[in-house]
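Tutorial handout. Part one gives the primary structure; part two gives the three-dimensional structure as tokens.
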Amino acid sequence: MRSYVLVNNQETYTLVKFSAQDFANDPVLYLQTDYLHGVKENFKKITAIQVFQNDISVGLYEIYDTYSDITDCGAQYNEDVNQFVDCLAVRLTKNNLAEQVQSLQDIVNPVIDFNTMSDEEIKTYKKGVLNSTCTAEISKGVQIETDKGTETFSLEQHDQNNISSLCLTAMQNPAVAYLPYHSNGNECRMFPAKVIISLYLQMQLKITQETTKCNLLRVQLDGETDRNTIMSYTYDTPLNESYQAQYNEIIANTLEIIQGLIAGFMGGSGTTDDSDNTPDTDTSTSESGDSDGENTETTTKDTTAN
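Part two.
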């Protein structure tokens, strides 16, 4: 499984190994590189970290702002390339609490004097609002049909990690018919494996929809020159025809990749069937963000960051 990390929506590093659960407990990235100076420069000021496995986003991390240390791991075996490679281990650190409080105050403070800001400064502020809204839209989660009807599943970062782990278990162990999980406001219970896989599909599509939408809005905002237009930008600002077409293509390709990945793991096992809740192909953006419309992110240049 090819794994890589996108740093600040600009630099990409191949990962020697990655586990969402291990990263949640100890935020260390094992990079396939020996270029220490470049790694220090790129991780010195972090705005977003996005991890991909087989070109599918498995995590968007925006709570880290720098690294605490970088360790030379020497030659490490990389199963993806079946050889030993140079490796640097980068341990990330969370934002200082005082900085988090100040950042929150900056976001919610209604007294912002745009008259003293340049167009570029306003764009930077607007991008921050777009990022925050994108993360909130993803966190709202997705709805899945189960034996109890329509249930909502939140997609906070820890939820994404849990769902990804359960789906991997289901795909690697076709004989496992049920797995434990819980929907919003309900107790943990056993879900059919095909429901867990359906949930994973919907989660990946939702993340890509929101992060791609946010990304394209940010790029579109960069091209604006009229100050009033810049001031009017929100997460509900429509994409122009060109960016909307780009969005539609990305979502359609992502859906095809996800379905192909699941088919590759589960083909012929009987774990899934034609009645599964496979994501539909609606690629229009919406105001709600519940099923369409992207800390992360994905084949475009600038995902939710900065």
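Part three, for discussion. Helices lie at 20-25, 36-44, 97-108, 119-139, 157-172, 193-222, 227-232, 241-266. Confidence is low (pLDDT under 50) at residues 268-276, 286-306.
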